[in-house]
Design goal:
This protein is α/β, with parallel strands linked by helices. The longest helix is centred in the N-terminal third of the chain and has 19 residues. The chain is globular. It binds 2-succinylbenzoate and magnesium ion. The site of magnesium ion has 6 residues, from loops. 2-succinylbenzoate (OSB) binds next to loops.
């Protein structure tokens, strides 16, 4: 029997992180990154976890201020005073319908355990020792064609070999063609965040002809018929993001012929353990996987880079340093490689998920804080 560490105390913080530029997608715009983090203290040491819920319930049903309240009031009290491991915590907390909050608790418990073992997250996830970097990919939000082209050029100059353009009806073929023209050596993917429908099939099918390598969540998650039509017509794979909350959803889409790949986001599926299960399903069922970002801080971004080093991630992902979006961040950031590794993100190899945050910056960026003690 495995003995789990005893959780002695937990703390949840709501941070307000300034953005480098607004992030606009079909589901809404972000001007500041409200972000929740948890710190869990156990008898083997402490760990940190990120709850990547956005400031508003636009992408999924969770949102940062609510996650802060629920973690402090309902979720963390379930594990404080208990002996619990990361997997058990997700099983217990996942039932509460807040996968991003459960993922935060999993990450913190895993961070504590891996630090105590002196082991890196990549090693724990089963990443091959020889894989020390992954392709650097940056997302670019909605904007005028001139704004999007300028941003794509900045990302290309910074070394990103892959760009994921946000698209929506009327902001699709023209903007993609302009970017392909401006940065011809960069791999272009697109993400519609569910904003298209069956009337847009021609325009979407035309994106593959422009060289686009992935079409992420063009249709609403329940519009399986349109996803199946596009899968049949498009040379670029249709990739599920919002439509892939769990393994069963992915299996059902694949059976319907409506899927070519999956954006794997640990927060959306309830943590790293479940993300690895989804990765393994992609590997055995010949689906392409891409590592999906959530405008995380360095903590979440590090965990994403470790995950992205697994073998089914054959499509470049949203693996950019947190500083792609965040102007201030208490956590040490991911790094772009130098020399031959330029254009690639180095897979973190320190013990745990991430080193500790800068305490002063953390304090300065904290809006609310709540401590949970036993009893
Ligand atoms: O749809 O992939 C998405 C960010 C927040 C919520 C949903 C999505 C995104 C991104 C961000 O596209 C990409 C990144 O983190 O750089
Ligand atoms: Mg997406």
């Amino acid at each position: 029997m495995v003995t789990h560490p005893l959780v002695e105390r937990a703390e949840v913080r709501l941070l307000a992180l300034p953005l480098v530029e607004p992030f606009r997608a079909a589901h809404g715009a972000l001007t500041e990154r409200a972000l929740v983090v948890v710190r869990i203290e156990t008898d083997i040491g402490h760990g940190w976890g990120e709850c990547s819920a956005l400031p508003d319930p636009t992408y999924t049903g969770e949102w940062a201020a609510d996650a802060f309240d629920r973690l402090g009031r309902d979720l963390l009290p379930l594990i404080v005073g208990q002996a619990v491991g990361p997997t058990e915590a997700v099983a217990a907390l996942g039932e509460h319908g807040q996968p991003m909050a459960a993922a935060a608790v999993e990450m913190a418990l895993l961070d504590a355990a891996l630090r105590a073992e002196g082991r890196s997250l990549a090693s724990h996830l089963g990443v091959d020792d020889e894989v020390t970097s992954v392709v650097a990919g940056a997302a670019v939000g909605l904007g005028t064609v001139a704004e999007v082209v300028a941003s794509a050029e900045r990302q290309a100059a910074a070394g990103f070999g892959r760009i994921k353009l946000k698209i929506q009806p009327g902001h699709d073929v023209d903007v993609v063609a302009a970017v392909v023209d401006a940065v011809p050596d960069v791999e272009v993917q697109v993400d519609g965040n569910g904003s298209f429908d069956a009337t847009h099939l021609d325009a979407l099918a035309g994106l593959g002809d422009l060289g686009v390598t992935a079409i992420e969540q063009p249709f609403a998650p329940d519009d399986v018929a349109s996803a199946a039509s596009l899968t049949e017509r498009s040379s670029a794979p249709v990739v599920a993001d919002e439509a892939a909350p769990d393994l069963n959803a992915v299996r059902a889409l694949q059976r319907a012929g409506a899927l070519g790949g999956v954006s794997i986001k640990p927060p959306r599926v309830g943590g790293l353990g479940r993300a690895v299960e989804l990765h393994d399903l992609c590997r055995t069922s010949e689906l392409k996987a891409t590592a999906g970002g959530m405008i995380e801080c360095g903590l979440g971004r590090r965990s994403l880079a470790a995950l992205a080093a697994l073998p089914a991630f054959t499509l470049a992902g949203d693996v950019s340093p947190a500083a792609r979006w965040l102007k201030a961040d208490p956590w040490p950031d991911l790094a772009m490689g130098a020399g031959e590794q330029h254009g690639r993100i180095l897979v973190p190899d320190e013990p745990g998920v991430a080193p500790d945050p800068d305490p002063e910056l953390l304090e300065r960026l904290t809006v609310r804080r709540h401590v949970v003690r036993p009893g």
